[in-house]
Each structure stands twice: as structure tokens, then as C-alpha cells.
């Protein structure tokens, strides 16, 4: 954060060359400057360079209020919050306080040149060019609200009974309680899940988008609000008739359609980025430390492929989508299970296996909405197992050739059983597979290393792949997995 400006009066402010700008003009000018400099516009946003970001930039340059329309876990809230970076770092406002002789302190950050409240105008009339000025940081010029449970008074305002009891007239500004939008005058207001707003609140928002003013309870008081209004919504509810009043939809300047990663590699980048985003002491995932973890590429791919398969599964209600948080939570669980084994067995580094990923039921619970109206009446665990098996099959076929798979199945058909699990020491896997040397050799197609921990992970991947292809069967008992025919 750069130093706060030292200007303290309106006269000094004018002498500095400052000129008032609307919020949208401020965003536009700073966006243009960023484009000219070639800066990264939205750090940490992956996979939107050719789709979402150009539409968002166009909306800012056009001076539009906007709607982010997409399913859960597509970065809508993050994009809204990052708009703050295109505000000026510091913005001046009239420093109206009781000790400056003001009889009434408005709950808004008044533009020093164009105050919108009667108290602000009176303050400027009394002090003129000597009016004191303070500074507002851009991080504080953003407010966000979740639509469910939001009332008109929360975001627009209401008559305040306590002020009436103190003698304020109902027909004056002094009797009003200001909601979030008036308080964000000269800032950005974001409303998440727009279709869940009551109709009365939607009407209030429509008035703000149309007239840029606030009217409360019929009180003949109008405020010329300067605010960028941003919304988010899920297509399933936004496009449903009656959920959002047509007049409000019509006043939203730009609708930005978000989407899930269109390539698995992008999904993996997001998964790793978000899991490791915070520092370890702040809850971020750390693969190093006293008990390090090394994640093989195929395990990352299986983890992300589970989300991809969930997004097209017949068992999942696709209207709400499958959030990127699904992948992130499963990835963290997989790493945690491998680290638990590393701690217990003294394996350094620990290498995640399919049996570690089998614990994902705990982290996946509640993150998928099953299609209960369909004919596939499965429990959540059964649906997750089916999705996981399909993901393993897809990745397995990319790594391993079909040559020799039938021979491995024939060995299992002779009564061979292989028991593996998340707490089986890595060094035992070579001994376990002596009766199925073809499967041991097949693991070399995944990774040619001789490291016991990586080899164990490859072996489990091969066995799980054979099961997913219906070549062998599987039984699970107390955390152990037995593969047989």
C-alpha cells in the first residue's frame, strides 16, 4: 500500500489537479492504463483469457453494470472482488465529523466537489475551499451481499424509528437508515445469487440501475448514487421465469458467461493453485516439511478427471454444476492420507495412491447434488464410486496400452488375490505382485522408476484401472482393497 496522500483541504485538492470522476469512469481509465502497460488484468484467474476476460474488459470500458452468469465454482465472486484493483488506490472525501461543526454526519463518503446529501451540501457551503478532506482506500470501497435473506432495508435503507424518537422529521434525510448501496456511494456493490432476492428488493435495484438514485418508503428524498452494481447468478435459476423481474434484467448492461476449465490441464492448475494459495501457517497445503509428499502426474489427472466425469454424469443434477472446490477438497484429502501413511510408516517422501484417493467420500460429501428425479436411484457413495471408476478408466487408458491386459486378467482368474491399502508399506508391493508379474511390469508403463513408493502408486493405479475396465473385481474391507476375479 502506498502512502496516504497528505492533502487535507478542498483547496489543496483542487490545486493538485484533482478532478472528480464517476466510479465507472475511474474503472475505465485505470483499465485502459493496465491494458497499455500490458499488465496481467486478473491474477490467479485461469482459463478465461480468450472467453470471460475479454467480455469483462468490454463491460468496464463500456461503463456497464454487469452480471456474472455461471455455475458454482467458476470464479464469479473472485472476478467481482478483483474489480477493486481498477479503482484509484486513494479517493478523497469530505471529512465531515462532529468536531468540524457539522450538525449531522452523513453515512456516505461524499465527493468533495459534489456532495449528494443535504448535510454534505451544507457542510461544503459553510467551509468552502477550507472544507477538510480525508482519504478512502480502494479495499474499503467494495461491499458484497448474499441474496438469500436480504431485505430492502439491508441494501437500500429504511426509516429509523430511533431517529424519529429523537425528533427527526419523517420527511428529511435525518430520519433514514442507509443500506449498503447508499453507503457504497463512489464504490462497488456486488450481489451474489441475484434470483434469490425478494421482488421488492429487485424493484429497488431496478430503480438504482435506471435512475441511479435511492427512494425509501415514499419519503420525498432522492440521492444521486454513484455506484457500480455487479451481480452473480446460476443460469438454472436466472433463466427461470419469474425469478428475476424483466425490467431488472433489461437494465443490466453486460452478462458475462463463465465456464468450467475446458482442458484437464487447466483444471489441475486451478486445483493446485487454490490448494497451495495460502501459506502453510494459514491453512495452505504444503507438500514439503518434515513429512514431504510427492504427487505423481497420473494421480493429479485422476483427481481432476473425477470432477470432469461428475460434470457429465447421469447421476448428478447438472443444473447446479460441480464446483472447482470439489477437486480442491479431494486433492487435499488425497495428500493428507498419503502424509498420514508417511508419518505412520516413516516413508519419505510419501506418494499418493488410489487407496488414498478412496477417502474422497468424506471431502466430496455434500458437494454434488444427485439427480433424484432420474431413474438411477443410487446413494451418494455409490454415485461417487461410479464417477471415480470412470475417471480412473479414462486416465488409465491414456497411460497404459491394451496389450497384455487380457493375460493379467487370466492370472487373476486362476484364483489370485491381491490386497492393497493406504497403510500397506510401499516396499511390500513387489512381494504382493510376485504372483502377477505381468501387472508389476504393466506398472512400468506408467512410470519406469524403481522408487518403492512411486512403484506402489503405479501398481494401485494399474489394479484400479483393470477394475474400472471390468477385467477384475474388487472388494473393500476396513480400508483394505482386495482385487480378484
Brief overview, please?
This protein is about 40% helix and about 10% strand. It contains 21 helices and 14 strands.
What does this structure look like?
- With about 475 residues, the chain is of the alpha/beta class.
- Helices cover about 40% and strands about 10% of the residues.
- The strands form five sheets. The protein has a five-stranded parallel sheet.
- The longest helix is centred in the C-terminal third of the chain and has 22 residues, at about 325-345.
- The protein starts with 9 loop residues before the first helix and ends with a strand.
Q: Which helices and strands appear, and what pairs or packs with what?
A:
Blueprint: H1 10-15, H2 23-37, H3 52-62, E1 66-69, H4 76-82, E2 90-94, H5 118-127, E3 133-137, E4 142-146, H6 152-155, E5 157-159, H7 161-165, E6 176-178, H8 180-183, E7 187-192, H9 199-211, E8 213-214, E9 223-224, E10 227-233, H10 235-238, H11 246-251, E11 254-257, H12 264-275, H13 297-310, H14 324-345, H15 354-357, H16 360-364, H17 380-399, H18 405-413, E12 418-421, H19 429-432, H20 437-446, H21 452-468, E13 473-477, E14 480-484
Parallel strand pairs: 1-10, 1-11, 4-7, 7-10
Antiparallel strand pairs: 2-3, 5-6, 8-9, 12-14, 13-14
